[in-house]
Specification:
Chain lengths: ~350, ~290
């Protein structure tokens, strides 16, 4: 009852193509965005901005990037962190070496660089599939990490390849304080997510899903595999690159190439497994889970079992729980938290009746 | 020339160590079609359990038997809790499940036995000695001999025993195997247990070389290019792939490394495997998938 499409008709094609077709959804998302942009900066404190909200948003964006490639186009990748690294380092270099280039423009260019690298390592996907493709993305992972550590030029010859955030100035406004960094991240994430959401609803998005479900059949009905797969790699690379730049400059401030190691790639893969593959919302749910769960666990063990479990054991425990959760999700709910949310919504639609 | 041969021989012997890990993969992939990312974690678990028992004063052979039993128990548990519920799912899902599995096993191994580095002494000296004008490591030769024994045992198991026959039947066609009354689930448990045994052997050799520590589970990343080159379904391929990777990695490090700054052994095998893939998408000995549009 609180959530029904009754009486809402699409009388124009443009209505059908809306991102949110239900009025309740539109009101809800507007309220959420208003809350995030206007209320959260007033309510939150520095700890929440720096330690929870910013990484949550950035990881959601990274999850989105991987989800387009893996969840929508069906190309498994373990090189997400490498593309993030390319984005971060390219953005840093654009800021450093092109005076007067706006920050957002450098980020976009950084994303384009990451897209280029992703395209390069995506090329083998035309010839090889499935597990074999893992090799290509793992090659990207190890090569990029080595590359930025080895060649000091990219980090302006700092020790062990560390790069630091440029001043976060946009149109003369300084975004360096926690609230500013949060707002900057949020704005970028919202814009990119809206674009991605439209993209997966477009012809390209449908082509991706066709290729994911069965690429031979997709080729038979005339979908150009070459273009579709490579676009998936490029667009995913772009989004991951932007996420990498945000990770380096709005979240951490200082980052070294090893900050983008294989563990980060796994983390992003886990976000989309837990959140839901082939879902935009899932990235946010998955990222929220990945960010909040360790905090929650350490809080819990701190208050309930203070002193019984030391930090090392807690980390092991966290690893075990993550692993178990991933297996449990794959068994019970392969579509992740996003699917659970959808089920809840369906229930709300008919409430208080059962169907 | 002597130097070249020495690097080559060292690389080939190091490659045998990679093959040992890759064999565990091949066994599982052949029988259940699962690309088992948790093989590295199993190696770590086996080595940690063994060395911890040894340090608690348990004799060598008893520790070996207990660890082996632990690996069998682990295999049964995995079959029951992970493989059985995920039957008929896409291979990618199974792969991701083994990713989760590797987290569980790594976490459990370290929670049980602690995260510090353990030394492991198998009583074989890791010192180079002169053989036919080449400096070779005694330990490497021992590893190579172990691998040879292991491969012979496995091929005997596959070709001479009843269970081996069922294993080959399942690898050939799981549905047909089911139809003639082979219990698929039992075969999976057996194969995972054998892979656990291979993991134990690999864990002992790698542990003796590097020390038993967390990074053991990362050797899975070394085994992946080996598999690509050798093909996922061939034990012989795993050996040959290991030799190719080992030799070319060392040669590249010595001859190409200085030109571009060194430290290339992390990614070089992957690039090599990629080049191989572009020429032979199914590896050297893998089964070719036939596909037409």
């Amino acid at each position: 009852m609180i959530y029904t499409e009754a009486g809402q008709f699409s009388i124009r094609y443009s209505h059908d193509r809306r991102i949110f077709r239900l009025r309740q959804d539109r009101i809800g998302i507007t309220a959420l965005l208003l809350f995030a942009f206007a209320a959260v900066p007033l309510l939150g404190n520095d700890y929440w901005f720096s330690a929870i909200l910013i990484p949550l948003l950035v990881l959601s964006l990274a999850g989105l990037g991987l989800n387009l490639l893996t969840g929508y186009a069906g190309q498994l990748s373990l090189g997400s962190a490498a593309f993030m690294a390319v984005g971060a380092f390219a953005t840093y270099n654009f800021q450093l070496r092109v005076p007067g280039l706006p920050l957002l423009a450098s980020m976009a260019l950084g994303g384009v660089m990451a897209a280029g690298v992703a395209l390069l390592f995506g090329l083998p996907s035309l010839r090889i599939k499935g597990f074999y493709l893992l090799v290509s993305t793992l090659a990207a992972q190890f090569f990029v990490e080595w590359f930025f550590t080895k060649f000091g030029w990219f980090s302006n010859n700092s020790a062990s390849g560390v790069i630091s955030a440029p001043p976060l100035l946009i149109l003369g406004h300084d975004f360096s304080n926690p609230v500013g960094r949060y707002l900057l991240t949020l704005a970028v994430v919202v814009v990119v997510t809206a674009l991605a959401r439209n993209l997966v609803k477009s012809e390209l998005g449908r082509n991706w899903m066709a290729v994911r479900d069965m690429d031979t059949a997709a080729a038979v009905i005339g979908i150009p595999l070459l273009r579709t797969k490579l676009l998936a790699f490029a667009i995913s690379g772009f989004i991951l690159g932007v996420a990498g730049a945000l990770w380096a400059f709005t979240y951490l401030g200082t980052v070294e190439p090893h900050g983008f190691d294989l563990a980060r790639s796994f983390q992003i893969l886990f976000i989309i497994i837990i959140g839901g593959m082939g879902s935009i919302l899932g990235n946010f749910l998955g990222a929220a889970f990945i960010v909040l769960f360790p905090v929650l666990l350490s809080q819990l063990s701190g208050s309930l079992l203070s002193g019984v479990i030391d930090a090392g054991q807690l980390e092991n425990l966290q690893k075990i729980i993550f692993g178990v959760l991933i297996i449990a999700f794959l068994i019970k709910e392969p579509d992740g938290l996003a699917r659970l949310w959808q089920i809840a919504r369906e229930r709300a639609r008919v409430w208080p009746l059962r169907y | 020339m002597g130097f070249f041969l020495e690097v080559l021989a060292g690389g080939l012997l190091a490659g045998v160590m990679y093959s040992l890990v890759a064999i565990g993969f091949v066994l599982i992939y052949k029988a259940s079609g699962v690309f088992n990312f948790a093989q590295g974690a199993m190696v770590l678990f086996a080595a940690l359990t063994f060395v911890s028992l040894l340090e608690r004063g348990v004799p060598f052979w008893l520790s070996f038997v207990i660890t082996l039993l632990a690996m069998v128990a682990l295999a049964l548990l995995i079959e029951r809790a992970v493989l059985r519920p995920l039957v008929n799912r896409p291979p990618i899902t199974l792969f991701m499940a083994t990713l989760g599995l590797s987290y569980v096993i790594e976490g459990a191994a370290q929670a049980l036995w602690g995260a510090q580095v353990h030394g492991l002494d198998l009583g074989i000296k890791d010192e180079p000695f002169e053989f036919a004008g080449l400096l070779l490591s005694q330990f490497d030769l021992f590893a190579a001999a172990t691998a040879a024994v292991l491969v012979t045992t496995l091929s005997l198991l596959f070709s001479k025993t009843r269970i081996g026959l069922s294993l080959r039947a399942v690898a050939d066609d799981p549905l047909a195997a089911l139809a003639i009354g082979i219990r698929l689930q039992r075969i999976w448990a057996v194969v995972w247990a054998v892979a656990g045994f291979v993991g134990l052997v690999a864990g002992l050799l790698w542990g003796a070389r590097l020390g038993v520590q967390f990074s053991l589970s990362l050797i899975v990343l070394k085994a992946l290019p080996v598999l690509i080159i050798g093909g996922f379904t061939s034990i012989g391929g795993a050996i040959v792939g290991g030799l190719i990777i080992g030799a070319s990695e060392k040669l590249a490090e010595v001859y190409i490394g200085p030109l571009i700054g060194g430290g290339i052994e992390n990614w070089f095998p992957y690039v090599l495997a990629l080049l191989f893939l572009l020429v032979r998408p199914a590896g050297l000995f893998g089964e070719r998938a036939i596909e037409r549009v």
